[in-house]
Amino acid sequence: MSTTMPLPEYPSTPVNVLWRTLALYAGTWTLSLAVLVYWEFRSHHAALEDLMYLKAEILHDNTWALQHWVGGHGGVYVAVPADYRSSPLLAMQPEHRLVTPGGRHLALMNTTVLMEGITDQSAAQRNARVRLTSQEPLNPDHRPAEWERRGLEVLAAGQSPWTELVNESEQQVYRFMRPLQLQENCLSCHRYADVDVGDVVGAISVHLDVSEDFAVHGKAERVMFLSYGAIWLVGLAGLTLTGHRWRGLLDVLRQAATRDPLTGLWNRRELMHKLDHEMARCGRYGHSLAVIMLDIDHFKRVNDTHGHQAGDQVLKELAGLIQAAVRDSDLVARYGGEEILVLCPETDGGVAGQLAERIRRQVEGATILTPSARIQVTVSLGVAAYPGLPTGTDLVQAADAAMYRAKQSGRNRVCTAAAP
């Protein structure tokens, strides 16, 4: 009964974790700015609504104050042309027309008549119209428009004030209405109507063109969106720059953690990590795997004769020779001291032995130039293969034992571990 080894679980690489973290930060940054922009957008719109309401309310309150003051004084006299025709209701009032000793013609005017003149001038200068309206007006000119009729119905239902914002002839228009209660000083005109003081007899209607306010608001919004867009881009650029700088640092740290600083080969820790992974893969899928352990013959003599700098140069040159001799799929690592191990995936013992012999011949035929001398070295190699050995450590030990047999047999040769 055969058993299979589970593939080891590898944690995410630091670079992947870094980019995922930065992506999370970027998403958080984007979401935060989006919420802030939405809040600012809503705040701008609320401020615009408050501004329109305030403008309309000021016009309404001014109109109400004018109506109250003029009514409280029984109307006001205004200079008019001699052919001016008074309102039928005002014509019923005594002394509705006067002529001064100087010959000036004066006409008595109430709030309604004054508002008509003021509204005409206001509409021309400030794009605003204010007037009195009612479902049952005494003056036919005060009949409500369709939108005013809707407003009066809402006011009659108890909602006050009534407002709406509409697009009217490609203009943004704000409409405002508030109930108008009958004052005692208005009874002279309403004496024939079945109403009492305090009754709602209509409404003060405000029609306000706010297109310019919307234009200013739109410009402010564009500036806001551009500003936040620039801030967002600067933030993303900062995160990206930070990511690249940290990636460079992680690359340096990864090189230091996985590579031998002298030869540039994989170090022992990284090799064993990869060996465990390959052993698990071979155990699961039934593939073959081989390792080659090699050691420089008489390396101590090289150090003693030519110095440690020359010995380091020999190790570096030897690493290059081995990497040139092996296949792209093979992994070469400095196992320790002058020992180098080659990991050969998908390779049986016979092919690994041929590869080891090729390495031996290439090293034997090379001359290594150092500042002090031209040095030639040889290597002894041991080969061990899977299947047959249960763990990666057993495989390395078998190759190491075979390499020592090669040394004992005269060095500069290849020995293969016997199958268990």
Notes on the protein architecture:
This protein is α+β, with helices and mostly antiparallel strands and 420 residues long. The protein contains 11 helices and 14 strands. A hairpin with a 5-residue loop joins strand 2 and strand 3. Helix 1 packs antiparallel against helix 6 and helix 8 crosses helix 9. The longest helix is centred in the N-terminal third of the chain and has 59 residues. The radius of gyration is 49 Å and the shape is rod-shaped. The two termini are 18 Å apart.
Helix fraction? 40-55%
- Strand elements, count: 14
Low-confidence stretches: 1-11
Q: Would you tell me the structural class of the helices and strands? A: alpha+beta
Number of helices: 11
The major pleated sheet works out as: 5 strands, mixed
Oligomer: single chain
- Give the distance, in angstroms, between the N- and C-terminal Cα atoms: 18 Å
Q: Strands across the major sheet, in which order?
A: 9-10-8-13-14
Overall mean pLDDT stands at 85
